[in-house]
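Lab notebook, bench 4. Continuing the backlog of folding jobs that were queued last week. Each job is logged with the same field layout so the records can be merged later without manual cleanup. Today's entry covers LysR family transcriptional regulator, a 301-residue chain. Filled in by technician R.K.

JOB TYPE: sequence-to-structure
TARGET: LysR family transcriptional regulator
LENGTH: 301
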Amino acid sequence: MRITLRQLAVFEAVARSGQVAKAAEQVNLSPPATSMALAELEKQLNARLFERIGNRLQLNSQGNLLLPLATDLLHRVEQIEQAFTYHGGDLVGRLSVSASSTIGNYLLAKAAVAFCQQHTQTHVDVAITNTQDVIQAVAQFRSEMGFIEGYCTDNRLHVEAWHKDRLLVFCHPAHPLAGKVVTPAAVKGQSWVLREEGSGTREYFVNAANELDMRPEAKFCFTTPDAIKLAVKQGAGLGVLSELALDKDVSRKELALVTIEGLVLERQFYRITHKSRQATSLGQAFVAFCENFFNITAETE
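JOB STATUS: finished
OUTPUT FIELD FOLLOWS
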């Protein structure tokens, strides 16, 4: 058997993109050469790795078995190349990270820029989406690690506690509940502006609110904190977001807080990685950098 790294790279690219043409762009081959490399790999293994569904190629059981092994091997080779590439002793390489909205926009974006400014031969790609999409990105090996606000029950992934956060209920400054402490019954029937389904922020808030029988109904749903804040500023109803997203708006008195008795909205952030994927030295360095970066930022604010 003579499996090559090129064949494995082609296989991984097809697995991620679902299409030979897109995979060909990623591995710098022509589509015919990409198809040939994939066919040769399947011949070497004496197994089909994909099933065609419409115009896409989807991993079958054999492909799902190979993917974590191929990804791990390719990353080990990348680590070897990085270890013997001289860049003044500094880190080098590209890191793919996924983060849910609050973490990505208010924590990781700043950290990624600062990290790459310190380590000029690196690049950190931060894909910002919702919790469920982050989980899928890590599970499908599109990201080395993910940072989420919601819960993860995927048994393929390792989950560890990361930073903590607090959600706040807010409204237009002219709203009747602005700046008040109210009972859960007082907000029943209110219009809410919430994140979309699949959002960790929404999931955490709705679960906590339902424990107090608030039963919040979303009149409007948006995928970004800025859209939610804008809607609330227009009088669309009550909103709920991380305090990270509200600090400036509240201090400028463009939004007002509402305190609901018994509603505890302190939550845990999590970092997730695939159990079958070994962490790269670049990934480990980024995690360590973030810990120090956020501690320093918190002390100076």
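OBSERVATION: The radius of gyration is 23 Å.
SIGNED: R.K.
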